[in-house]
Design a protein that fits this description.
270 residues, alpha/beta, Rossmann fold, 10 helices
């Protein structure tokens, strides 16, 4: 009879995800996780012109991304604010615009559970001389989480800091990436202000911080109208407002959902 431990090890090996040997020098879209670096298909992209009400944020993100892609000084970026206002899709749209413009830049998406693997990703990308954007989507850290300090160290230029040809782009619903109450609580009997400063300092490491606020009625209708024109749909403002009222929110996401509903009812493919 074979060694039970050997049989258990073999079974675990079969259950393990296969190693992925993505070549960071080839392709423009990647994901990184416990299976390593893997190429990804280009996601569905929203044309930049369809982002209504965020003209300033879009322009600043585009300019920073173009500088980075061209090898010029550029910032790490934090996009923060209301849910559904297009933060994540704008990051992808800007990168898609760079790719369409023949810039040799790649985007690597990393999800929050894999944040401790960020130094490993940096080591992989350091060996490839092209430009990279590492995208951390919907990041939210607990104030006492060791990852706050780890991420600060990576942005501060320590031993494991990101390579010079890599920039971080982070989206979050929190302006400071940590819960608001962590900035206000007196959890440290010695100096609570030092605790708050330490936690809030993480957001300060991002040279470009762009706020996305919940849209008002006019902005919401403008987004809906843009989508309708882009897809050849009739636009009914009253129906758009009723749709938003039924969901208790006005946002870019709700506007797109209304567009999907309108197109489906009209028999139009998007």
């Amino acid at each position: 009879m074979s060694d039970p431990l050997a049989r258990i090890a073999a079974a675990l090996e079969r259950l393990s995800p296969p190693a992925v040997d993505g070549d960071p020098a080839i392709g423009h879209w990647f994901v990184f996780g416990d299976a390593g670096l893997a190429p990804a298909p280009q996601p569905r992209l929203t044309p930049l012109a369809l982002y209504a009400g965020v003209d300033a944020q879009r322009a600043q993100l585009v300019e920073n991304a173009r500088r980075h892609a061209a090898g010029l000084p550029a910032h790490d970026v934090l996009l923060w604010g209301a849910r559904g206002m297009g933060k994540s899709s704008l990051v992808r749209a800007v990168h898609g615009d760079l790719v369409a413009g023949d810039f040799d830049v790649a985007l690597v998406q990393l999800v929050q559970p894999d944040l401790p693997r960020l130094p490993q990703l940096f080591r992989i990308l350091a060996a490839c001389p092209r430009r990279f954007t590492v995208f951390l989507d919907d990041l939210s850290l607990d104030g006492d989480d060791g990852r706050v300090h780890a991420l600060r160290s990576l942005l501060d230029g320590g031993v494991m800091a990101r390579p010079d040809h890599v920039r971080l782009v982070v989206t979050s619903n929190r302006r400071n990436l940590v819960p608001r109450q962590m900035a206000d609580q007196d959890s440290d009997p010695v100096n609570p202000r030092d605790v708050a400063d330490d936690q809030l300092a993480l957001a300060d490491r991002f040279g470009l911080r762009l706020g996305f606020h919940a849209c008002d009625q006019a902005q919401y209708l403008a987004i809906c109208a843009n989508y309708a024109v882009a897809h050849g749909l009739a636009f009914d403002p009253a129906a758009a407002l009723a749709w938003a009222a039924g969901r208790g929110a006005r946002s870019g996401r709700v506007a797109w959902q209304f567009t999907v509903e309108t197109a489906g009812a009209a028999g139009v493919k998007l």
